[in-house]
Amino acid sequence: MASERVRSEMPGTARRLLGLLAGTAVVASIAGCAGLGGYSNQALFPDDVASVRLEMFDNRSFRRGVEYVLSDALAKRIEVETPYKIVSSRDRTDSVMSGQLVAVGESILTVERDVARPLEKEVTVTAVVNWKNLNTGRIMINNETVIASASYSEFQNQDFTYASHLAVNKLAQKIVERMENKW
Prior knowledge:
Layout: H1 2-9, H2 12-31, E1 51-54, E2 58-59, H3 66-81, E3 85-86, E4 95-111, E5 118-133, E6 139-152, H4 160-178
Parallel strand pairs: 1-3, 1-4, 2-4
Antiparallel strand pairs: 4-5, 5-6
Helix pairs in contact: 3-4
């Protein structure tokens, strides 16, 4: 009732402006999701591919064995998070993913003041990824650099291997996110 009294006391121009604003808000709320950048029912991943052959990544870093952990983590993530199946035969696959492990680095994040001993370190893993559709010849990921990192502390009984596995799993997740359709 109070709002009706306030509206009746408004001059005619203000009432029309208030009505116009209310109408605009209703139209914007209805059309908001359908406009640019809104919701879509398109597939999240390309639908012209059903299988992926995952080639072993070349390791250009000085840390050996990380490429095996990356291939394993990436194969598991592709199987679980995408509609694709991992296929070992190049003759029976729709696409091929390959790449290079460019760098596996370690840096110090924090240092103990008194004795200058590292308290926390970080492992950073960098890869260059390629993904090609063998049916159409289209390159879906072309030499994209993907970087992931994870920190660790020796005081929590963590070591380089622990952090490198975490960083590689994050890297695999980022690679799978790159496999999604561009919006």
